[in-house]
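Section 5: illustrative case.
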């Protein structure tokens, strides 16, 4: 086998592998990222709604949400964390929901200075400060960039609109 034929064969294998990964692994990865973040936010919402008085106290003493009164921020935060995870997990308005939760996540980090004991900017590159929030942010940005993927209500509705649900 000549070197040209070998390179051609390798390129062909690479192309087939890339198509397979894009078809199967990409959608699965996007689904798992959506679910991972959705579960994290859902659990936070469940904790908040289980103890409204404790949640109110946290927003009055520890969380410093900009522009909102603590009572409003507590109720709003609780319901955001109970509703938007379902939208994200199911892939409904996937990009918009992911962008909304990205901003919400950023506000949560900014509002709770105890997450960044080494300072906010240092914490961005420090592996120990608000690590979960950084991972969620990266996963949410992936959904913003590539959409919720084939395994989503958005994709199903798109196929219905175009009359190709069987594909």
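Designed sequence:
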């Amino acid at each position: 086998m000549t070197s040209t034929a070998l390179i051609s064969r390798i390129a062909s294998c690479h192309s087939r592998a890339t198509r397979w990964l894009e078809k199967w692994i990409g959608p699965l990865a996007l689904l798992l990222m959506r679910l991972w973040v959705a579960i994290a936010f859902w659990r936070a919402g469940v904790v908040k709604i289980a103890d409204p008085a404790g949640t109110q106290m946290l927003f009055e003493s520890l969380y410093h949400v900009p522009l909102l009164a603590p009572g409003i921020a507590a109720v709003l935060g609780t319901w955001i964390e109970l509703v938007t995870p379902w939208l994200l997990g199911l892939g409904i308005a996937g990009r918009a929901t992911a962008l909304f939760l990205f901003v919400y996540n950023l506000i949560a980090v900014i509002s709770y200075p105890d997450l960044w004991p080494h300072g906010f900017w240092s914490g961005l590159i420090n592996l120990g400060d608000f690590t979960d929030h950084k991972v969620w942010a990266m996963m949410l940005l992936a959904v913003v960039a590539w959409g919720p993927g084939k395994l989503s209500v958005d994709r199903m509705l798109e196929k219905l609109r175009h009359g190709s649900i069987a594909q």
